[in-house]
Amino acid sequence: MQNMETRQELCKYATKIVDNGLVVGPGGNISAKSGEMMYLSPSGFALEEIEPEQWIEVHIPTGEITDIGLRPSSEVLMHLYGYRSNPDIGAMVHTHPSHCIAFTLIEKELPVMFPDQAALVGRTAYVPYIIPTTDLLAEAVAAKVTEASSILLGNHGLVTTGRNLREAYYRTQVVEESAKIYLSAKAAGQPVPLTDQEVDDIAALESEDYRIQLLQKMK
Ligand SMILES: C[C@H](O)[C@@H](O)[C@@H](O)C(=O)COP(=O)(O)O
């Protein structure tokens, strides 16, 4: 079996995603890149039920799928185009977090509100509702993954990217927490986000060390 380490890592984060309520039932799909291959969840599975050998191998340059008798996620194009669009991406996580979806029902642009959000995620992009699983949605997401590591999908969910699964997963958690904070602040009054200058100051501070410290803190 090729790339057992990547497959095991995928199983680990698939379970965390479910345990943290970021999807329910058979929702969501995740992938990780290894060389020219991506390993993607099969379609219709609850993420935590996927066994290491069931992750679907897809050749990123050609889109060729290694046949193991399971269908790849219906969002295969979204993952494929994402890796093609931004070669720095090592993992992609698509979830349906409830506060993110609620946020997109009333707003589009998620403001940057607190330092960990600025440092770990930065600005979140937005794609209006497009029918799931379509080439159109895949193209729209691929156009955003060069400018943002998190993309809210209107009336649908969230896509995050990272250099690895851990980074993409933490970003999912932070964006969901941000949407939750925004919605509770909005219910109480008018949220006051960080200014552009304050966000840029965090980005300037953002030596790799600072990010790594934050990531370790969040372990
Ligand atoms: C409409 C689907 O739920 C879509 O959002 C899809 O991305 C999903 O979450 C699960 O589909 P797969 O099991 O095919 O990955």
UniProtKB/TrEMBL annotation:
Pfam family, one: Aldolase_II
Highest taxon listed in the record's lineage: Bacteria
EC number: 4.1.2.17
Domain Class II aldolase/adducin N-terminal, first and last residues per copy: 8-183
Keywords annotated in UniProt: Lyase, Metal-binding
One Gene Ontology MF term: L-fuculose-phosphate aldolase activity
Any coiled-coil regions, as ranges: none
UniProt-listed InterPro entries: Aldolase_class_II_sugar_metab, Aldolase_II/adducin_N, Aldolase_II/adducin_N_sf
PANTHER family tied to this protein: 3-OXO-TETRONATE 4-PHOSPHATE DECARBOXYLASE-RELATED, FUCULOSE PHOSPHATE ALDOLASE
Protein's name in the database: L-fuculose-phosphate aldolase
Organism name: Paenibacillus lactis
Lineage: Bacteria, Bacillati, Bacillota, Bacilli, Bacillales
